[in-house]
Amino acid sequence: MSSAFSSGDSIIQNQSPVTVVDHVRLHEIWNSEQKHRCLRWIEKHNLQRVALQFPDSILPHIVQIVNDLKSALVDELCIFVLADTSYGSCCIDEIAAAHANADGIVHFGHACLSKVSRIPVLYVFFQFKLEEGQLLATLSREFVTRNIHVTCFYEDCYTDAMDEMRDTLVDRFPNMVIANLAKADQKADIMHWKLDTPHESNGLVLYIGRDNLSFFNTAVALKATQCYLYDPTKTDPQLERTDAFQAKWLRRRYYAIERCMDAGSIGIVVATLSTKGYLEIVSRVQRLAKTRGVRTYLISIGKVNPEKLANFIDIDCFVLVGCPENDIFTSRDFFRPLLSVFEAEMALNQTWKEKLLTCYTTNFPDLLPNGRLYSNVDDVLLEIKGANEPADVSLITGKARNVSHRNIADTESKANETCTDVASKRRNELAQISSADQFTSRFWQGLEQNLGHDVPALVQMGRSGVPIMYENERNAQPSNEQQECFLP
Q1: Each residue's pLDDT tens digit, 30-60
Q2: Are the C-beta atoms of 320 and 309 separated by less than 8 Å?
Q3: What distance in Å separates the CA atoms of residue 93 and residue 138, rounded to the nearest whole number?
Q4: Which end of the chain, N or C, is less surrounded by CB atoms within 10 Å?
Q5: Are 270 and 322 in contact (CB under 8 A)?
Q6: What does the alpha-carbon distance between residue 427 and residue 403 come to, in Å, rounded to a whole number?
Q7: Helices 32-45 and 62-72, interaxial angle, to 10°?
Q8: Model-level pTM?
């Protein structure tokens, strides 16, 4: 039995591990400098209703932060606290802010830094410290050559610490390129990073932070010969060599792609309503699916979990359009495979062959126009019409797929010339594109009004009382078994 239908006991027993971010002190997120920074930003944008978005780790400090802001602001300005997000704590929650008619959001804590365009946003990151001497000593032992080419990335909670150490690191390693967080009006080079010098394919990558989804997303987006991780939260942090494309992870992703290639229906799960370009990527997936005769369903269910998606039993696989730091891709609890937009592109775009080993991205804007992995859908359609794609065999079911009209016609002509006993099955000659056709074969299609077709029913008095004994049952004489049940 699938774990998607398991009871709630396993959820209660499976508690999340406690991390360093769960114990955030006030000075690690809020001080006088951050206070004046927020005040200048509110005055610059002339805001009247500001929403403060907090993760769970900062909830004990909400009162102090709100009081500090209200004491320095005019009385006409309204402040709202968003403590429960619609999708994830790292994403800007425009939906909750719209409920309060907020015209600006101040986001506290870790953020995925997805681009938003409808509301001004200010990020207030964690301000964790770095031991400068220990970091320099560790890097000097590993990088003996001073002229080695290294591109350095870091977790957003070490942004202030890296700004203080930037000149020292560059003096020690002249060829080290330290990435910067791209501003709102800048186009990022990789994920949300802006590089002064383009990353070399044969260069090394250094990431300062924890082994989390931020590190994974950055590592898989780069072509690097070696990737090093320096985790300051450990007791004795050392440089760890890591490989983002692990064999086990690759097998699982290839399996999901194969399932998507076999799918007759795909559910596009929209897990964001604020990230710039999410409607364009939904339209792109729909067009690619239509070229292969695959039905698509658009689903918006808020926070995604296995129990919600298990209700869509007719859908063969799901494609998530949402935050790049969504950890549900690594979950084994889903009833159907869940793919990223890049993996769906690999399954539906026949011009993409063997791209998983050369590039990867969890950030769907990379597939949009002006993105680093963009390809025109119209070119894909022209190639499908102009080329005769050879039939493919599924590695899961063992059946043939992608049998085009021309292949069927050629098979029929050859069969008529050689032998009359061979007949084509005419599979996939007609592809049902309409999603509504899927429900026509069902016996039960949901509640229907049938206005004018049913005889009107008389209005009758309903039951009243408690389920153990309704009012109309009190006057009735209970049987012996019922009497035994009612006796104490």
Answers
A1: 999 999 999 999 999 999 999 999 998 898 9
A2: no
A3: 39
A4: C
A5: yes
A6: 8
A7: 50
A8: 0.76
